[in-house]
Structure formats: structure tokens, C-alpha cells
Amino acid sequence: MVARGPALKVRGPTEEELTQAKSFFWKVAGVVAAFILVVVGISGPVYAFTLVSCVSTRNCYVGSLLISINASCKEGTKDGRSETLLHGDTCTLQCGPGLEGSVPMLQCDDGVARGQEGLRCQLPNVPTGILPVVATLASGAVTEGSKQTACYRAQYLQCQAAPGGASILVKLPDMTKGACDDLFAECRILNPAFSFTEHVQSAVALAYAENRDNKTLRDIAALDPGTCTLGCFVELVPEDKLVAYENALFEATEAAAAMQTFPGVQNDDTGSACDVLPGPACVNVRGSCNAGDDGDYYKHPLCVTGIPQWSTVDTSRRIRYDGIAERGQSGKWLLEAGANVLESGYGEESARQPSFNPLPVFGGSIWNFKCHIRPSIDSSYIIYRNLVLELMECSCTAEQDCNGHGITVGSKVSGANCKCICEKNFAGDNCEIPLCQAPGVINALSPSCKEGPFLYPGTRCTPACRPGFLPSKPFFTCATDGSSVIGGIFECSSGGKDMASLAGNAEEYGGATTTAFPKCTEKDCLYRGRATGERRLDGSCICECLPGYSGNQCRDQLGNCTAPLTKDILNGALSTCLEGQKINKICTARCAEGYYGLPAILECQGTALVPSKFRCFGGKPVSQTWCEMMQSVTIAMSVVCFLALFTACCCFQRHSKRKWTAWFTGVQLIEQSKDDLGHFNVVRSDNRPDKHSRLPTRIMALQHEVDMLALEDAGNTSFDMPFGQQALENQPRSRLPLEESSKDPSSYRQPGSLRQLGDGSKEVWGDEVDIPRYDSKVSHPVSITSAGGFLQMQLPDAFPAGGWSSNALVPSPRLRKGREVVLSSVPGRPELDGARGWLIEFRNRTGLWQVDLEGAELLDVPESCLDEATTVAVPGIPFADREVKKLVDTAWLVKSRDLEKQIDKSRKKKQAKFAGAANQAQEARQASLLKVIEETADERDQLEDVMLQALRVGDGEGMRGAISRSNELLKDLVDAPPTVTAGFRRLLETAESRLEQHDERERTRASKREYEERVAKGDAADWKMTSKEFWRHAAECAPERVQAGLKAKLSVFLRSTDGMRSSILHHACREACTDEVGSDTARRRLEVVMLLLDAKANADAVDFKDRTALDLAIA
Questions:
Q1: Is the separation of the CB atoms in 546 and 529 below 8 Å?
Q2: Which of 91, 892, 1059, 1096 has its CA 20 to 30 A from that of 147?
Q3: CATH number of the domain that 446 lies in?
Q4: Cis peptide before 737 (omega within 30 of 0)
């Protein structure tokens, strides 16, 4: 037998354990989810703006760019050069000795070096002299009065400026530039304190300068040409430099042999007329305050007053000796501009050296400068300053003569004989032309361009690929600045047949040759220029192109094209062409950032671009788009995480159990508790001694006894007497009815309760029922009506006024709403006695009626002060004893209203009467106007035809008469509706506008004819006359034309260019000997000669045969 024990029972988890396990699981899941949300919410923005940053930080490779301009970075490596710049780094440009960069630094911005456009090393600009500070008005300065006496009044003024400051001595309006300069010269003679002048043009003068044909502006500008300011300033010079300058000036004046200290003084071998006189062949000037003065000055073959002179290569400036004693009192050596180096005349003075030696003081010395400065278009300065000017030995320098891109060969001892050996990527006489270097391309020949390793700006590069490879593009163009090849780097790819194989074995029939290049002719310049005879490295001829052509061999024709408009180029840059708005040769397409233009080059042919427009392709790269999308996704995830955490915190937080408190309703305490279902319901109402009623005391005073009686009749309630006592502690607590205090309380009988009354009416006495506030001593019956649980008491007519105490409940009103009443004995308003009104509303809380006093005022009045209008009581008498008096007369209000109505009616009647008369006058005027319109209809049509015909043929006089008659006609139709005269007025305004234009043109033509007549008579300047015509008129004895030329400021000091060196007086007197005595020709010739002499023509000037004009006249 097998003994079997009791079966083993395995107990499973209970329901409570399962619930706890599930709760634990969800708690752990919630913690993990919250942790993930917090991590994602915090790390999302960090990931979006750091790890997934869309801002590229590529490096900039500036090594080749710096090598091309022979510069380096100060922040570079040990050798002073930096090949690569990180994103955000800067490179402070450092050029060779004596040079400075066109920009101070380069900054790397995502692979682009900001500032590389037009980067070059250049000579530093010499700052021009300007006023040290803003000038201030000196005390006693001349600012008004006559201009002729201004210098006389300012001759004793002193410069009141501090060192480094400026002071204004004279400031006068309405002066021209020439008059201002003349006034400055005059004032400097009387008062040497004057050291600068400034002329600022007026706004009208500037406007007239832009539009010379506007006669109105001319007349206004003549009245207000500008403001002239004269003043002085004090140089701020350190004491040591001042002493050094004074010593140098003393030595320069006393040392006659100062020229021996200058190196190369005996190197003058020009063989000219000044060969026997000492002086260097070239002088380098530095330190002038006038732009263009600095540079090399070469010794000129001709002398001035027997002393050598030095001039620039273009003869625009020279250094000469002033041989006139009157002009050279402040120094003999003069630096001037605009003078003829072949004559001894004077140009515009720039500086004067206070030296009287036959040679200037070389090296650094003080010069008295007359600085001409024009800081803006409307102002100009002339400042006298003492500055150090250096006259140094000339030498060939790579920076000055080769623009820093080559090696100089030669010297300037005997002239401008410097030659430049340019670097391989520059060309030109002075290495001023940057060349494009052929790019390095895989599978391409070396060089990769068939034209050679370097290309001139604007020329094409034809790709040269190895046999078996073809270029990706047919050609590329070198940029105008030589910086790069436009169009990108080409590729040589396989897949096509080499063009060289098409030639077969043609090379076997030819070979190398050593035949010299033929001479360059105009044919090589395409008959668009002159061949210079030289050739470039590629063998092409160098040409001097005619105007309108440029480029290699004058192949490019300069056009006059306009760049495409930005609105016509989708995704285009603000300036669509790299070359600017006006295009002469090519337009390099410019697009917005991230886009490229196709075609990249537009050619200017005549006045149109070929093709006329380009298109911009490209946009944001895929990497940037993906990056921005990832940023948006991460930011959105962070926002979602934040909202999820916020929602979880709001929804799953633990709330404390709600606690309910008791509250009062009236004097009743209401408490709450849970019922069996767990909801909150009202379960009981109770009063507690520690709670007080929230009702106002005045209400409790009126209701306390009624409430206590009601509570006593309520039966078994939970009313707590101490609470009632505490709530009503300040009120009388005796029970009604009230008796004499002397009576025995035992004589009181229990009054009946009001609740014992059934429905219906009953007349009771005061001692039969307990009525609140009713005095039972007064034996008057009270009618009580009980219905539906409500009681209504009706007092008898003889009820005494004191039957209710002041604190009694408000009884029902005896009056009804809407009744007309009369006021009497209103407290504080005696003026209302006898006034009438209507009852609006009875206020139960206050026991007062709201009365409308004749619509003028709303007033709350006690019922005791009101009586119905049918029965007016005398105030102050009890109601039972009142006698009916005569009604108060308030009819005056009604009469007043009736009078007002009559006045309004009369006023309206008068208005209607006057309105009828006005309408009749209006109808009469309207009829008269219609009659005038009908009578003038034909005349208006006729005037319209006349004005239209005059407009077609341009008849000004006919139009003038029609306009005059039309204006008179419109005066009669001034009140006519617009539909009648609108078209006629429009045509009239058009005619008046055209007539005004016609008159303006006629005035312009008349003014032009008048000017031409005045020019022909010699009364006005002929600004179109040339010097050649001026000399011809002098030879033809035309005094009127000569006078017109003199008024046009034509020079009388020029000499002929035919080698005769004759003056204009020689031409005027050449045929004088052939004139008959007393003839008209002789008289006119004499007038011409007198005019020329009055114009300061040199009567002693001699020609190449040493003959004066008088010698020719009497020969």
C-alpha cells in the first residue's frame, strides 16, 4: 500500500499583492520615463546648437595671395608668413619697406578671407594739410558791413587762438570764390596774422553748378554764391623741433654753398643751355600738403631768369627761381603748379622756400606752404602753413617705380631712366598689370593654357589637355584684376578623340624655325591703334589703342552698357555685375550667397549685353538643409519633453484631503459632512455660541424679537439661548405687550401667538395677541389677515403716530406706486414743501419712497412726508387730526411748459417762413445759372476748338487769347455744377500749362539770342572760344571778338607753337604796316592792340628774331 499524505497546496498571489506589484511597476516606469524626458529636454538644445551646428568653420588659405603681393602676416610663423587662417582669425597685413596694405587686415570667415578684394601693397597716402581744430569766432571779428572795408577794419586784429587752435577774424556772406581769394590776399598785406581762408558754397550755388541752364538758379546764386571765412591758426610745434627749424633756416639763408652738401650735384650732363649752371639732374620732393606735389622733379633744359628749374615728367609742376624782387621778398625758390615751363610766367603757388641762394636748400628745410584743400564739393580751404619739405636725391625704387612687383634697373641721374624687371605674375612698364596664372589641372599639359603660363586681364585661357583628354569647357577668362580665372577650374577627362590626331603626320613636313618675328604694324592692332614695336611674352604685339578700344591687340571694343536690374535676376546680388553699374567690356555675374551665375560672363557689345541676362542657380547645400532640419527636430523634442513633464507634475501630484468648514446663512450655522456614499451634503443646521451672525446690526435690531418668537413656536429645535443672547446683547429683551413697570408681573397674561391664527381676517386688540412693537395700552383694534403663512396688518385711521417705536419693523406702505403725491415737511429740504411728484419705488430696507420730482430730481422721502395729490395734509399734524387744506398751487409749472411750447411753435413758424424765402431765392439763382449755361454753350464749344487747334499747331498767341476769354467765361459759371465745366476746365488747364512751357522756351531762346548778340558785340564772355580762334580774331582786327575772348579769361601770355615764339601782339601787329592811314581796318587794329595791352599783354615780348610787336608794326 502506498501511503498518501495530505495534498500540498500552493497558494497564489492574492489580489492585494498583484495590485501592489502593478503599482510598483508603474512607479519604476514613471521614474525612468521622467529621467529620459529630463535628459532629452536638457541635452536637446545643447545638441542642436553645438554638435549639430550649421555654421561652417572652414579655414582660409591665404599663402598664395600674400605671396602674389609680396606681403606677410604679423601674426604668422617664425618667417613672418602665415599660410592658413582658422575661422575667426585675423591677419594683420605687413608689406615691404615704404609700403602699406590697401586694407589693414584680413579676417577668415568660413573659408573666405574678408578684405582680399583688391588687396595690394601701395605707397602710403600723404595726408594733406587741414585746419588743426574747428575755428572759433574771435572777439571783434568782422562779420558784417561793406566788403571793401573789411580788411581795413581787421588790420589790427590779433590771432587769439591757443597753440594748435584756430580763430576766425573775418566772416562775410554773399561772396564768390574769386572775391574771397582776393579779399584774403588784401587782408594778408594789411595784417600778416591772416593764415587761412575758407569758402563754402551755398545750396543754391551748388544746385546751379549742376544745372547751368536754369536761369532762375543763376540769378539766385549770383545774390548768394557762398560764405567767405578768413582767419588764423597757431601751429603746435614742440620746442626742440622749433629750435631745429630756426637753426636750419638760418643756416640755409647764410650758407651760399649749401648745394655742395647734396650728393650727385655735379651729375648734370644734359648738355642744355643750363649746362654751365650747377644743380642735380633729379630732385625727389616729399612732405607737401598739396596732393600731387610729391614725386620726382627733373632738371629742365631751359632756365627761368637764368637759374635752373626742375619739373615733373608731365610738366604740370615745377620748382623755379623767382627773379622778380617784388614777388620774391619772402623767398626766391617757388614750388608751383599749372605754369608753362617754357615761359617765365607764374602758375598756382604751392610753397615758397625762405632762401635767397641761387640754388634751393636741399635736404629737409622749412617751406612756407599755401595749402589748397577741398574737403567737400561745397567748400574749399587755403591755409598758409610752415612745413618741412624734403628735397632728396632721386633713385630707382621698386616700391615707387615698379609698384613693389619687380626689380629696378637704371638710375635717374640723367633723367627718368628706370626700367622694371617685373615678377612673373606682373607686367607693364611699371609692373602695374597683374596676370592670371594658369591653373594646375590633372591630365593637362604644362602650362594648362595654350596662351602660356600667365594671362593678361580680360584675355582667354584655352585649356590644353593631354592627348586623349578633352576639357570640360572651351575657354576661361582672366579677371580684370588678374586675381583668378573666371569660370572655375576646368577638368581634362577621357572619352573623346584628341584634336592633335586629326593633323596626321603634318609635323613631319615642318620643323622648328629661327626666323625673326615680323615688325608690328597697324594690322596687328586690327587698325584700332598704333603698334609700339614691342611684343609680349606670348609674341603678340603691344598696341596703343584708339579711344573706345582696349585689350590685347585692341581686340576688345569698349561699349556703354548697363548692368541687369536686380529685380530681373532671381536670387541675384544687389549689384548684379562685379564691374559695377556701367559696363565697358564684360559683366561678371554676381548672385546671392550660395548661388552661382550662368553664363558667368556677359559681353558688352555697343549698348547691349550679350546675352542680356544671366540666371542664378544653386542655393543652400544639402548638408546645411539637413543640419537646420536636425536643429528644428531637437528643439521640438525639447519642447515636447517640457510639456510632458509639466503635464505629469500637474496631473499626478498628491492632493491633500479637502476640508469643509461651516458657514452662516443669515443667523443659521450650516455644517457639512460625508454621507454614506462619500459625497458632501448638507446634513444639519445648527447655531453655536461661538459664532456670530454676519447680518448688519440694524437688521438684527428690527428682527430679533420676531425671530425669537418664531424659534419658541418651532418646537423641539437645537436653538441655543446663550447664542441668541450674545447676538442680541445690545437690544431690549422684554416680551410684548409692554406694560407699566409699576404693574405686577403676575397680572400679565400670556398673549396669543401669531402662529395660532388661521387663514382669514380677524380684528384683534393689542392685549389679545403678541404683536411686535405694538403698544397694548392704546385701545385701537388691529386688522390681521393670515393667508398662505403670511400675516398682513392694517392699522386704523385713528392710529396714533407714536403707535410704532422707532425700531419697529417697516409696515406695509399706505401709498401705491405710480401715484401723484405732494411733499411736505421733508427733513433738511424746506424748499420742497408743496412740490409734486410721482412714486417710483418703495424701499423695504429703508422704509423710504423714491419720488420723481417733476422729472427734475429723484429723491428718497419717508412716507410720512407724502400725501396723495387729491388730499394735501398740513405737515406736523398727526394723521388722525389732519384737516384737508387747500391744495398747493403747482400749476405754474404747467403754465411754464405751455409757454415754452408756444415759443417753440412760433420759432418753427418763423423758420419755415424764412426757409420759403431762401428757397425762392435759390430757385431764382438756379434759373439764372441755367440760362447762363445755355447762352455760353456755343461759345464754350468754340473756345475748345480754338484751344485744341492751337495745341496742335503750337500757336502760342492764339492760345493766349483763347485762355484769356475762357477765364472770363468761367467767372460767370463759377456756381455751375462740375459736370458742366469739368471738361472745359481740364482743357483750359492743359492749355495754360502748354502756354507756360511755350513762354519759358521763348524766354530761353530770347536770352540765348541776347547772349549771342552780347558776345558778338564783345559785351559778354565767349566761353566757347579757343586760344587758336582768339589769336585769329586778333590778327583779323575784330575788337568785339577779342574783347569777348578776354572776358572769357583767355591768356595773352602764350607763345606760338610754330617755332617763331611770337606773342598775340605780334599776330595783331604783323600786318599793321599794310593798313591805310585813317582806314577802318587801322582803327580796328588799334582797338585790338589797346585791348590786349589793357589785359596786361607783354608789349616787350620778342620773337625768335628778337623783334617786338612794335618792330613788326613799323617795319
A1: yes
A2: 1096
A3: 2.10.70.10
A4: yes
Q: Report yes or no on 453 lying in a domain.
A: yes
Q: Of 129-138, 196-205, 488-497, 545-554, which has the strongest mean pLDDT? A: 196-205
283-332 pLDDT, tens digit each: 888 888 887 888 888 888 788 877 888 888 888 889 988 877 667 666 78
Residue with the larger pLDDT of the pair 37 and 242: 37
The mean per-residue pLDDT over the stretch 222-236 comes to 83
Can you tell me the distance from the alpha carbon of 1040 to that of 1019, in angstroms, rounded to the nearest whole number? 8
Question: Which amino acid, one-letter code, is at 100?
Answer: E
Sheet strands (E) in 558-708: 561-562, 572-577, 582-583, 586-591, 595-598, 601-605, 608-610, 615-618, 663-665, 668-674, 680-686
Residue-number span of the structural domain to which 116 is assigned: 60-122
Cut 0.90: pTM above it: no
Same domain for 957 and 995, yes or no, is yes
Distances (CA, A) of 555 to 199, 547, 551, 561: 48, 13, 6, 18
Q: How confident is the model at residue 509 (pLDDT cuts 50, 70, 90)?
A: very low
1025 and 977 co-located in one domain: no
Q: How many domains does the chain have?
A: 7
Q: What cell numbers appear for 329 in the block?
A: 621778398
**CATH code, 1060:** 1.25.40.20
Q: Which among 694, 739, 687, 678 is positioned nearest to 708, based on CA atoms?
A: 687
Round the average pLDDT of the chain to a whole number and report it: 73
Reported as a single tens digit per residue, the pLDDT across 341-397 is 877 778 888 888 887 777 888 888 888 888 877 666 556 777 777 788 888 888 888
Residue 572's alpha-carbon distances to 321, 568, 611, 612, 616, in angstroms, are 61, 8, 16, 14, 6
Q: Please give the Cα distance from 653 to 543 (Å, whole number).
A: 92
| 254 close to 186: Cβ distance less than 8 angstroms | no
Report the number of secondary-structure helices (H) and strands (E) in the chain: 20, 56
Looking at the fold, whether 535 and 590 belong to one and the same domain comes out as: no
Q: Is position 179 within any domain?
A: no
DSSP states along 553-578: GG-EEP--EEPPPGGGSTTEEEEEET
Number of neighbouring beta carbons within 10 Å of residue 547? 8
Question: Pairing mode, if any, of strands 595-598 and 60-61?
Answer: unpaired
Alpha helices in 312-389 (DSSP H): none
Question: Which string of DSSP letters, residue by residue, matches 954-972?
Answer: T-HHHHHHHHHHHHHHHHH
Helix (H, G, I), strand (E, B) or coil at 973: coil
